[in-house]
Write a structure and sequence with these properties.
By secondary structure, the protein is α/β, with parallel strands linked by helices. It has helices at about 20-30, 40-50, 65-80, 100-130, 150-170, 195-210, 210-215, 225-235; strands spanning about 10-15, 35-40, 55-60, 85, 135-140, 175-185, 245-250.
């Protein structure tokens, strides 16, 4: 297959739907073979089938380090290499810090921060063996202007950005580039799927009262394909080109 990512293997977390699925499809269209990681086996298999022969479903709970090790062993066995890791998976629920449950805090920190640590750790030996590659960590525009009721989500993404900034230097000798992809409001994402309706309404009332949605996110969301295009752009830059941070959001 030809394309800017021809010959490359790309692993994407949270790839069963939404932004992750769009990234997987975009990478495959750009010529890559893609490993789709997510917990929902049935949905993940359907997503891989939708993309076609270039895709493989690798079910895994990436907040479990043992599951991550097994998943990356499967990537190695299936593809024999890895060139790009996209940490896209994330969870969030609208809640104040005072009202957060133990389960919410563990899930948000586990999926949004610990999971990327586990996947990056597992990916590094494969990327080194491929002679270098890219780690692209999907973040959010709200790290610079955290939304009330989503502070834990923003804090975990801010920590991921700090980790990314340090890894740029830690991995430079290996030829591994690290990029923060800061996404604005994107349609078709998964974050809101499990939100409690009353908690959502309380959060949105506060956001509107404080002007957050108009000031930070604007009136329009962007299609997930724009985020996918940015991933392909970053991963297809020639050796010697470094993109530390890329912001992708709707213009209006």
């Amino acid at each position: 297959m030809t394309g800017p990512l021809a010959g490359k293997v790309v692993a994407i977390t949270g790839a069963s739907r939404g932004i992750g699925l769009a990234i997987a499809a975009g990478a495959a269209q750009a010529g890559a073979r893609v490993a789709l990681l997510a917990r929902d086996t049935a949905r993940l298999s359907a997503a891989a089938k939708e993309i076609g022969d270039a895709a493989r479903a690798i079910p895994a709970d990436i907040s479990d380090p043992s599951a991550v090790r097994a998943a990356f062993a499967a990537i190695d066995q299936e593809f024999g290499r890895l060139d790009v890791l996209v940490n896209n998976a994330a969870v969030a629920w609208p809640h104040t810090v005072a009202d957060a449950t133990d389960e919410q805090l563990h899930a948000e920190v586990g999926t949004n921060l610990l999971a990327p640590l586990y996947t990056i750790r597992a990916a590094i030996p494969l990327l080194r063996r491929s002679g270098g590659g890219d780690i692209i960590n999907v973040s959010t525009e709200s790290v610079t202007n955290p939304f009330p009721h989503l502070l834990v989500y923003a804090a975990t993404k801010a920590a991921l950005e700090t980790l990314s900034a340090g890894l740029i230097h830690e991995l430079s000798a290996d030829g591994i580039r690290v990029t923060i992809l800061r996404a604005g409001r994107t349609e078709g994402g998964e974050l809101r799927l499990r939100w409690d309706e009353q908690a959502r309404l309380r959060a949105e009332a506060d956001w509107d009262a404080l002007g957050y949605r108009a000031r930070v996110s604007g009136s329009a969301g962007q299609p997930p394909e724009r985020v996918a295009d940015a991933v392909v752009f970053v991963a297809s830059r020639p050796q010697g080109t470094m993109i530390d941070v890329i912001n992708v959001r709707a213009h209006s």
